[in-house]
Write a structure and sequence with these properties.
Layout: E1 4-13, E2 16-26, E3 31-35, H1 42-50, E4 57-62, E5 65-66, E6 77-80, H2 92-102, H3 107-120, H4 136-148, E7 154-158, H5 166-183, E8 186-191, H6 194-200, E9 203-208, E10 211-216, H7 218-223, H8 228-235
Parallel strand pairs: 3-8, 3-9, 6-7, 7-8
Antiparallel strand pairs: 1-2, 1-4, 4-5, 9-10
Helix pairs in contact: 2-3, 2-4, 3-4
The structure holds adenosine-5'-diphosphate and magnesium ion (MG).
Magnesium ion is lined by residues 42-43.
């Protein structure tokens, strides 16, 4: 069970208010996509959920527990970033194992978790290679593997595919949807790409200027857009 409730989240940077009263109830095992134009507050909201940024007001509640004051590592949340910073001098195995080394986990447990993640991500035959020997898609999978081994309850993705070319992006969309089914985890995925949102999401949150325009299934948004903005954004060809 990992429900994620965002309760009246507000965020200001100095005089600039970038998030206005974000109030969303995300269900257990749901794949929710936050979509909206550049600068609308997507990354800021994700960073607040992860605990990398503090909200000016409001609460983050996971499985009914208020985690707003908890350290990022205690929240049971893992974030995959846009620019996947792998360690070039470490093998794929050690890159994936890295968060477990920090936790001082036993070698046996490390082996078990890394091998399981590699299996899910089809990296089993790449574990002894270095990041420089991998394709862009494989490198992105290593970054995701690093999240999986921590066995988080909630995964956060901030535009994880935006550095990949169009063909690879399509493949990775399918892979991430499969990953969601296999891991049975709650996932929050940020993108500015409507196609990604429409094809991957159980439900979509459309953000504009730090406000929620609509929260609903792709079909609801498509057939019953709540605002002109949603209609334009979803209908707009990519
Ligand atoms: P998105 O991810 O949707 O492109 P961001 O969350 O990165 O948008 O940014 C939302 C707004 O907040 C932007 O106007 C941005 O300039 C501003 N912002 C983000 N981080 C900071 C910061 N650390 N200090 C000041 N302003 C910031
Ligand atoms: Mg962003």
């Amino acid at each position: 069970m990992a429900t994620l409730d965002l309760e009246n989240i507000c965020k200001s940077f100095g005089p600039a208010k970038v998030l206005h009263d974000i109030d969303l109830a995300i269900r257990d095992k749901e794949f929710v996509v936050f979509v909206g134009p550049s600068g609308c507050g997507k990354s800021t909201l994700l960073r607040i959920i992860a605990g990398l940024e503090e909200a000016t007001d409001g609460r983050i509640v996971i499985e009914g527990r208020d985690v707003s004051r908890e350290d990022p590592v205690d929240r049971g949340i893992s974030m995959v970033f846009q620019s996947y910073a792998l360690y070039p001098h470490l093998t794929v195995f050690e890159n994936i194992a890295f968060p477990l080394r920090v936790q001082k986990m036993t070698q046996q447990d490390v082996n078990q978790r890394v091998n399981r993640a590699a299996e899910i991500l089809q990296l089993t035959d790449k574990l002894t290679l270095k990041p420089g020997q991998l394709s862009g898609g494989q490198r992105q999978r290593v970054a995701i593997g690093r999240s999986i081994v921590r066995e988080p309850k909630v995964f956060l993705f901030d535009e994880p595919l935006s550095n990949l070319d169009a063909a690879l992006r399509g493949d990775m969309r399918v892979e991430l949807s499969q990953l969601h089914r296999e891991l049975n985890a709650t996932m929050v995925y940020v993108t500015h790409d409507q196609v990604e949102a429409m094809t991957m999401a159980d439900r979509i949150v459309v953000l504009n200027g730090g406000r929620v325009e609509q929260f609903g299934s792709p079909m609801e948004l498509y057939h019953h857009p709540a605002t002109k903005f949603v209609a334009g954004f979803i209908g707009q060809p990519n």
